[in-house]
Amino acid sequence: MAQHVAECFLQVSSIFKLSLLALVASSLPLHAQALDGLPETGSEEAHPPITGTMDVVGMELVEDRGDEARFTLTLVNTTNADFSGLVVSVYPNLTSGLEVRDAVLDIGAVRSGETVTPSPTFTVLDATAGSTGLTDLHFAVDDRTHVDGLDLDKNGLRDDVEVLIEAIVPDENNAVELADKYARSAVRFYRQDTPETANEAFDDVENLLLCLLETELTTDVSMDDITTRILMEISNTDERLAARLKALDLAYSVRQTRAFPSDEQIARFCSEALIPDNAK
After folding, report:
1. 97, pLDDT greater than 60
2. What pairs with residue 100 in β-bridges?
């Protein structure tokens, strides 16, 4: 049954997710231009190389209606760079039982060393929403002025994608590790510039997708939803979506129908994916 579901999902996922991401990206505000007086954060002149952190250090209750509460947040930029298009996404802990509405906050410009409490608010829905604290939530900071975003810990994956995985993937049965590998494979795929390398990278994405779909969880979480949300986060601006479309065009220009992997092959994909990169 799991194999049948995975096979059907592979057949429709590319078309479905492509149209879904195009719809989502078309509704996003554009953050392609730096504010007057601030350099473009994608250039070497703006910040060679970025050091420091970007942290949400506080949240303030603005309105408490009992079963829902509105908050602002406080963000500290301890990096050596000025930013003009910061966005913070707010996710509840998996075990918190909370729901967050208006969860994507357009912060805008934050200079090096600056502490800001921007005006956008997010809403927490719960019977005791007013008592929500920082430890109940995850905050993903993204620089949407260029395709690479923020990778302040220098581990090769955008910080906002890492936070999303931490927030939505249950920490069981290697699901977090596989989701991390899946996200990295998708990013590598989007960066390819030849049909042959794009096609090969697409195989890696499909293999890791299969691993995630075959992962058994005790929690009521949909792996289809997890993989879709990871791809949506990776492709959450027009520029990032364009990179995905370009890679898909390259891959499909040479791609042939692929036989569905056997259970043994899927098991091997998953085992190899869990080997640390420095041990390969």
Report:
1. yes
2. 124
